[in-house]
Amino acid sequence: MQRGSAAASPRVRRRLSTSAETPPRTAALDDLSERVAAYVSEVVAPQAAAMAAGDGDGGRGHVTELGRRGLAGLLVPADYGGAGGDHRDFAGFVEAVATECASAAVILDVHLSVATEPIVRFGSDEQKRRLLPRLARGEWIGAFALSEPGSGSDAASLQTRAEPHRGGYRLHGSKMWITNGDIADVYVVMARTGDAGARGISAFIVERTMPGVTPGRPLHKLGLRGSRTTELLLDGVAVPEANRLGAEGRGFAVAMAALDSGRIGISAQAVGIAEGALRAAAGHLRALVQVPAGGDAEWVTAATGSAALDQLGGMAASVAAARALTMHAAAMCDAGEPMTRDASIAKLYATDTAVAVAHAAVELCAPESAMDIHPASTRLRDAKACQIYEGTNQVQRLVIARELLRD
Amino acid sequence: MDVRLNEEQLMIQQTVRELARDKIGPRAAEIDETAEFPWDVVELFRKHDIFALPFPPEYGGLSGSALTLNVAIEEIAKVCATSALILAVQALGGYPIMLAGSDEQKARWLPDLASGRKLAAYALTEPGAGSDPAAMQTRAVRQGDEYVINGSKIWITDGGVADSIVVFARTDPNAKTRGISAFVIDAKNSPGFTASTIHGKLGIRGSNTAELHFDDVRVPVENRIGAEGEGFKIALRVLDRSRPGVAAQALGIAQGALDYAVGYAKERKQFGKAIAEFQGIQFMLADMEAQTAAARAVVYHASELIDRHSPDVAHHAAICKLIAGDAAMKVTTDAVQVLGGYGYVREYPVERMMRDAKITQIYEGTNQIQRVVIARHLLKD
After folding, report:
1. Among this protein's residues, is B74 annotated catalytic?
2. Which residues of B89-102 are buried (b: 16+ CB within 10 A; e: fewer)?
3. CA–CA separation, A23 and B157 (whole Å)
4. Which pLDDT does position A17 carry in this prediction?
């Protein structure tokens, strides 16, 4: 779980927006929605209950299987072994997975976006050829390590050091809230190479097999129990210069760019969670509500005044709005237009919607929903994380307000 | 499902934005204060072909695209909700003819509506039939080549100023929703028809809202839209088109209030700095922005579904009406809060916007009805 970020500076934002490019689509994506639906029904749904209970392999099997189906590099260009999808494809995929299993969604979201995209966008050709095909085949699982025990929303204050060492670097420090922490093979790690502040930070590719890399034990979380969230200890890890991502001092920009599009993934995850909760509530009500004979008008007339249906309708409308905002942010990203504001709006709205809708679903499905494992209660627990990670919703509000007050 | 405006739509948006800002904005407070129907705005719309936006080119219109129309309604509502309603109702009164009229009927009525030479209205609601329109009592009895209409309608926007009014009346007292038919009446030339304007509204005070009375009003058979008994179906299809228009009005009201609140927060200084620098204010503004953006996303999405003739229009029309109406109410209320005491008085526009917002949760189906319509869609499967 990666949480916390300050916002990119306006200067950075402009630069990033012009460097965004839509990767070419591959023919393999023509039937993407069918392949995603098959993956969700054959792989994600059957394991959803086990994942919600915190059992399972932390999602390694999900990534492997996704790789076998050619989608573990959804956002990786075809030249580097990926599927060459765009951010609307990505959002659709994450939503579809999250509708069945929010744990699987965050595992895959992190692998596909914040762990991989920084390499796509900031990696050298050598780094791309070395790293991306393995990530895209699902042989390697990715993670993203920005937050630290003492540095969350104020990411620029991070303490992990990267000191010069034999032509490369030696990393010391501790990272926190790392989604896929103990199943990942490769981590995008932000560490300090220079002075205090955002410009003293650089980004590195750290491999699990490097001596001194030690993930902590998975944390016991409120929700998303199928995903492994750990601390990551870096104890004098020797990292060659060839594994530095981008120039020295550019690490904060790499992180912020990753989070801008990462927020699209979290928005989509939240939409999926909300959709799952909505379906649970609708399924529950369908069994209870007597549907009168006749057309829609007669039905609406007869049902008007039902508090439960009133609530259900409001939930569905919010989910539709959250989805529309998420797709809008994704489309802005694909067009290479500035999208910091749109991504933050989508993240704020979609994740608040997910919590509200899941909460309402728990109420509508009572008393069964008071159980630990129930489609509604699971989603309420899972939704809560979405308001916190990839920048708390309080940080999103500051980002939105800053953009609003800029002109 | 992402919706981007095309070049023509961006051009129309810019044109309407400037027109609204320069010509309507300065009039908005006065229109509200006097509660008089703004004929000067009607004249402005005529002169600048604004009334042509809802109608297709073959009938003298400019566009016929729901997205284009709703972008225009949004722009006008940013400065004056009353004026935006004049355009929205011109479309509303034209929809039954556009959607269910014969070619001859379209050619006969639509060009005058597109030019604005005639104003339209739409009369469905009755004193005893609001959310439940199937309970309507107004009767239309066939006599030779004519129908004789008796009854009354209420809450009819522009009912007291319109030239051409689509009236729904019962042609079969025994068939519930299938006993209703639609008629176009010539309001200026129909003995027995009277309209009395309703005064004292909370918001959209400059708009005309009337009670209509029909006392043996005779309508020729060729003024019936669609077949006998098809009226209710037509009414629902019209609502699918018109609800996104109301939602666009709500969206514009919200955006106008947000814009004003942002500008104010940057200017207003307390404790030695602009109140925009306080996080408490920033959080409010951010939530207002998110709700307005959500409203825009669903309004544009529903509009685009209309333009693509999607079968999901009814569902998304209800969604956008609910989301945008509620957003308008919340955002305008918070805008009043950002302005504090100044927000509460008429020297500043946000209290008017808050009063104007309320109706968007009520008309064209209350937001409670929208929720049930949406729930119906979910439970149907």
Report:
1. no
2. bbbbbbbbbbebbe
3. 51
4. 30
Contact between A404 and B131 using a beta-carbon 8 Å cutoff: no
Q: How far apart are CA B380 and CA B370, in angstroms?
A: 15
Q: CB burial class (10 A; 0-12, 13-18, 19+) of residue B328?
A: buried
Q: Do B375 and A310 touch (CB under 8 A)?
A: yes
Beta strands in A120-185 (DSSP E): 142-145, 161-165, 168-179
- CA-wise closest residue to B373 among B243, B254, B180: B243
Helices B25-34 and B350-360: angle between axes, nearest 10 degrees: 70
Give the residue ranges of chain A where pLDDT is below 70.
1-28, 290-305
For residue A367, CA distances in Å to A280, A404, B59 come to: 13, 43, 58
| Residue A8 to residue A31: CA distance in whole angstroms | 36
Q: Which runs of E-coded beta strand occur in A216-365? A: 229-239, 244-245
Secondary structure of residue B170 in the 3-state scheme = strand
Q: Which residues contact A142 (CB under 8 A, 6 or more apart)?
A: A110, A111, A115, A116, A135, A180, A184, A185, A186, A187, A188
| CB atoms A310 and B283 under 8 Å | no
Tokens of A325: 């905002």
Distances (CA, A) of B331 to A16, B251, B274, B357, B370: 32, 10, 21, 9, 20
Average pLDDT, chain A: 90
Omega within 30 of 0 (cis) for the link into A367:
yes
Closest residue, chain B, to A351 (C-alpha): B290
Q: Does B378 touch chain A (CB under 8 A)?
A: yes
The CA-CA-CA angle for residues A110, A180, A96, to 5°, reads 45
Query: Cα separation of A113 and A127, whole Å?
Result: 17
User: Is the Cβ–Cβ distance between A85 and A330 less than 8 Å?
Assistant: no
How many other β-carbons are positioned within 10 Å of the β-carbon of residue B266? 15
Name the 3-class secondary structure at A295: coil
Comparing CA positions, the residue from B40, B205, B115, B2 lying closest to residue A327 is B2
Neighbours of B279 (CB within 10 A): 12
Strand partners, B211: B196
What's the pLDDT at A33? Answer: 92
* Contact predicate B335/B353, CB 8 Å: yes
User: Which of A282, A320, A400 is closest, CB to CB, to B290?
Assistant: A400
Q: Which of A285, A298, A348 is facing B379, going by the closest CB pair?
A: A285
| Residue A189 near residue A145, CB atoms below 8 Å | yes
Q: Decide: helix, strand or coil at residue A189.
A: strand
- If you compute the radius of gyration of chain B from its CA atoms, what whole number of angstroms results? 21
Q: Choose the mutation target among B131, B372, B380, B381 for the interface with A, i.e. most A CBs under 10 Å.
A: B372
What is the tens place of the pLDDT at every residue in B305-320?
999 999 999 999 999 9
pLDDT on residue A211 = 98
Give residue A292's pLDDT.
Answer: 60
pLDDT score of A7:
35
Picking from B60, B47, B133, the residue whose alpha carbon sits closest to that of residue B94 is B60
pTM of the predicted protein model: 0.91
Residues of chain B predicted below pLDDT 50:
1
Read off φ and ψ for residue B117, nearest 5 degrees. Answer: -60, -35
Q: How far is CA A194 from CA A162, A257, A258, B312, B378, in A?
A: 9, 20, 21, 56, 56
Q: B139, B173 in Cβ contact below 8 A?
A: yes
Cβ contacts of residue A60 below 8 Å, gap of 6+? A141, A183
CA–CA separation, B101 and B88 (whole Å): 19
Give the β-pairing of A168-179 and A161-165: antiparallel
